[in-house]
Amino acid sequence: MSDQQKELQSLSDDFQRLQGELQSTVDARQKLESQQQENKSVQKEFAKLAEDANIYKLVGPVLLRQDKSEAVLAVDGRLDYIEKEIARVEKQISEIQEKTEMKKMEVFQLQTQMQQQQQAQTAS
Fold it and tell me: Does the pTM exceed 0.85?
C-alpha cells in the first residue's frame, strides 16, 4: 500500500471516529433535553400545589416526606445544572462538527490528488 493510500486510510479512520464521537455527544444532548423536560413538568406541578401540600421523595425503596420549598429548590437546582450541561454539550457538538468537516475536506483533497496522479500516469 502506498503512502498516500495509508494516509487516506488514516484520514478515513479519523473521520469515522469523529462521526461516532459526534453521535454519542448528540445522544448525550438528547438525554439531557429529556431530563430537562421531565424536571420542567415537575416544576409546573409544584407551582399548582398549595404551600402545605405533602411532597414525597423516593430514596431507594422508601418514600420520604419533603418540604415544598426544599423540593422546589432541588428541582430548580437540577434544571440549572441541566441547562449548563446542555450548553457545554452544544459547544462540544459544534467543535466536533468543525473537526469532522475539516477531516472530510482533507479526505476529499487527498482523493482528488490521487485521482489526478492516476490520470497523469495513464496519460503518459
Answer: no
Residue ranges with strand state E in the chain: 55-59, 62-66
The model's pLDDT over 106-115, given as tens digits with 9 standing for 90+, comes to: 999 999 998 9
Q: How does 19-56 read in b/e, with b if 16+ C-beta sit within 10 Å?
A: eeebeebeebbeebeebbeebeebeeebeeeeeeeebe
| Residue among 35, 47, 89, 93 at smallest CA distance from 71 | 47
Grid coordinates representing 68 are 415544598
pLDDT band at 121 (very low <50, low <70, confident <90, very high): confident
CA distance 29 to 32: 5
Q: Are 5 and 13 contacting, i.e. CB atoms less than 8 angstroms apart?
A: no
Q: How many residues does the chain have?
A: 124
- Rounded Cα distance between 39 and 112, Å, is 51
Q: pLDDT band at residue 117, thresholds of 50, 70 and 90?
A: confident
Instruction: Name the residue among 97, 83, 89, 85 with its Cα closest to residue 25.
Output: 89
